TrEMBL record:
Family that this chain belongs to: Belongs to the class-II pyridoxal-phosphate-dependent aminotransferase family. BioF subfamily.
This protein's record includes keyword DNA repair: no
Cofactor list: pyridoxal 5'-phosphate
Top-rank taxon, per record: Bacteria
Keyword field: Aminotransferase, Pyridoxal phosphate, Transferase
The name this protein goes by in its record: Pyridoxal phosphate-dependent aminotransferase family protein
Database matches in Pfam families: Aminotran_1_2
Amino acid sequence: MVPERLLRQLENRAQKGILRQLQTPTTGLVDFCSNDYLGLASSQELTQLVEAELAGTHLHGATGSRLLSGNSVYAQELEAALALFHRAEAALLFNSGYAANVGFFSSVPQRGDTILYDEASHASMKDGIRLSFAQSFAFRHNDLEDLHAKLKRARGDVYVAVESLYSMDGDQAPLADLAALCQEQGLYLVVDEAHSNGIYGPNGEGLVVELGLQEQVFARIMTFGKALGSHGAAVIGPKALQEFLLNFSRAFIYTTALPFASLATIKTAYQLLPSLDQDRETLKKLAKQYQNQLTESGVFGLNSGKGTKNGPIQSWHLADPHALKQLAGTVQEAGFDVRPIFSPTVPPGTERLRIVLHAFNTQEQLQQLCSLLLQHSPSVIL
Ligand code: PMP
């Protein structure tokens, strides 16, 4: 027996054309979908490095939480290396970016404090914020004026939470302005770098380091499941923050630590990052190509969404879920893996294909994709 209301909710989604379903992967499609921006998830070089790192070691579970049997010198050395790489005092590993955000926001901002967060922030940040006893207000996406207005209601310690590169829109937060504001007013800036880690900065340290703002940012959330081609995450910041999280963050304390195989993959992926300059350049060139092609076709701003997007996340907006699903199907049949993103993952009316660029995509492939999008989208929006 299944409660009637669950069935009704599923039916409701199906009727609107937004029922989430697992899609069996089709092999051989050109990847314009995954977050494997640099191709590390399938890199032969990384495989060899990981195999060498794992040789002769056990590959099973960590056997407990980091505070009990799950700790290792290897994990602590990895954290020290992460802190050094990202130019911070300390790092603390979490099992995923989701866990890192929930673990951070549910424990650090406390009763009597305030969290001001960009409305486009990732679900894991919002879930952590819901678990926090601090009061919280969303401000309009990338809107500093609205942030100023919301600041009037702030009390206690004030945390400002943003993503450096937004996961669905692909635009950047105005980090320099935010950092200046936070410094001036004594606010704590928290930046989720899930989608900029590996992509920006001289060695892929992220956007905060590229902009030289590391001293002005209180905490950064780095995830390893995207450009690093692995999984897991770390919160990067002051030593006292690391100590606080390992004492009070339940998403860190009450969970089995990452297994050695994961730590080894993260460590070796980081070893490769500095050598991937060319790939980072390719990504930027492809982003420019996509934006230029849309501009030349006269659909820039209509189908591309707002904001400057010089990174790997681009989009093709089409608000009708049924038309969007059909477009995705047509493009997939032509050999390109693109996926539609529906509400509530994005706000209703902003449904889109999330077009993800990779260092291994070619200009010709992107050109073909753009032609397909232009050719098969309903003419009303062209
Ligand atoms: N933060 C952002 C901005 C994300 O896009 C994601 C993943 N979609 C996460 C956190 C969660 O990271 P993970 O996949 O490692 O749980």
